[in-house]
Amino acid sequence: MQKRVWSPTTLLRVSIAVALLTIVLKGAAGYITNSMGLISDAMESFVNLASATFALAMVTIAIRPADEDHPYGHHKAEYFSSGFEGILILGAAVAIGVAAAFRLLSPQPLEQLGWGLALSVVSSGFNAGLAYALFKAASAHRSIALEADARHLVTDVWTSVGVVVGIVAVHFTGWLWLDPLLAIGVAINIAREGVHLVWRSSQGLMDQAMDAESLAALNATLARFTSQPDGEHLRFDDIVTRSAAQRRFADLHMHVPGDWSLQHAAGLRDAVEEALMAAVPGLRVSIQLLPLDMEARAVQIDAVASAH
Fold it and tell me: Which residue ranges form the domains of the chain, and what is each CATH number?
């Protein structure tokens, strides 16, 4: 029996609830221990809350059907969510780094580590479980907004693990400077993830080509048609692709013998379109029919495949 995959909007609502819960747990952990590492971890949870809230708004827009003003749909709204989350992460990294630098200049003792570490571990467990569900749904729905939220939560989990290990080390060594140094490490770690999210969203907004796996499936499907009995009379070229979150687009030329009837050529074109859309989930394809003796920039399938 196939397991149910939650919808993006449902998961993002859960993400908001988990963010609120972790803010309380990590905030309490930072307060009772006076640990800059745990306080920085709690600050990152506020980013989780803001990014999940914005992602929910963008995903709600992205699932709207195409209309007269947006004939290709609203799928690119998800890239705004990913970029916004990346910017928030970078802002949090700067804030954590500045606060940690002041604490590094004036180290302070840690208190009640047992309770603080327990609260941090519990909150990390919630984040880890949610990240797993988000990754699974992101793959099923091809949602960059869910993937961005999941990646951030994974970063948060590893950050918490590092902070907990570091605080235990502070307890046994007495090196108070190690706590703010860990917070600076937290800032650097989440800044790296923030840069990755901003870069990826910018590439999506600039109509990046389909991923290599989808291109390979597209080319394999076309090659299957050229290997059929009528295939020796077919040629596909001028293949152009782009991605828009859940949706993919492909435009290409299909060359057929000039003496074929329009009905025969159009019927074969329809079969190719259906096969391509079945091979590449979320694909919208447009094929222009041309006679074999007409060239149009002559970008062969093999050349496109090797370029990617």
Answer: 8-205 (1.20.1510.10), 212-307 (3.30.70.1350)
